[in-house]
Amino acid sequence: MSPINEVLAIVSILAIHLSGLASVVAARLAERSSVTSSAPKWFFVLLGAVGLSTMITLSAGHGIWLLGAATLSLMSLGATIDFRAGRRNPAPLS
Fold first, then answer.
1. Where do the structural domains in the chain lie, given as residue ranges?
2. pLDDT at 73
3. CA distance 50 to 14
4. Looking at residue 85, what is its pLDDT?
5. pTM score of the predicted model
6. According to the model, what pLDDT value does residue 44 have?
7. For the chain, which ranges sit under pLDDT 70?
8. How far apart are CA 23 and CA 79, in angstroms?
9. How is residue 35 annotated by DSSP?
10. How far is the CA of 62 from the CAs of 5, 10, 88, 90, in angstroms?
């Protein structure tokens, strides 16, 4: 691969990862809003794009795959952690 193509590939992969992290924030903020948002849909689209770019960089043997693995884990944690401060009661045993 020529140097300019490699630089463009790395920049586009970095843009995908930054967009993925931004989608986590947007999806979490949209959760608090009463207006319907397309942020959760974009989150899942970008989750797939980050996963795909991580697999491509891993198979290519490029060292940037580690960034993809970190981005996937941050996106997963950001989507599942409950940041609400209120105390919740456990489910009743019946």
1. 3-80
2. 93
3. 10
4. 66
5. 0.77
6. 93
7. 1, 84-88, 94
8. 10
9. S
10. 14, 10, 45, 46
